[in-house]
Each structure stands twice: as C-alpha cells, then as structure tokens.
Amino acid sequence: MWNAVTMLGVTGETLAPWLDLNRTTAPLARGDWADVAPAHLAASAALWILIPLLLGVARASRKDVK
After folding, report:
1. How many helices (H) and strands (E) does the chain have?
2. Cys-Cys crosslink for 35: which of 23, 27, 29, 62, Cβ 3.0 to 4.6 Å?
3. Eight-state DSSP code of residue 33
4. Could you list the residue range(s) of the whole structural domain that residue 56 is in?
5. Low-confidence stretches of the chain (pLDDT beneath 70)
C-alpha cells in the first residue's frame, strides 16, 4: 500500500517513512540498531498499534457483558 502512497507525490514520499511500519521496523529486523529512527518508529507504532488498541479497549469497555 505504501508503494502506491509514495507514487502520489511529495506528500506521499514525506508520509511513508513516518507511517510505514515495515519501513520503520526493518532496521530492527536486520539488527542494525544504528539506523533506527526513534521518532519514525514511534509514529508508525502509534498509528498501527497503539491507536487501534485504545479504540478496541474503549469499544469493549462500553459493551454489555452478559
């Protein structure tokens, strides 16, 4: 999906390094800790992990449990 976003122009090229979880975690998978950009990793993890988790918890806490 991010390949399509980067082809959209300057905005896509700017957003992809910040929000593409595969791109931000790739240095961790390679074991190259020097190339890890903490801000990029935090932004993408927040978008794809933290926000959906918080929304799920909020949704589950509002449902009636029988």
Report:
1. 5, 0
2. 27
3. G
4. 2-62
5. 2, 63-66
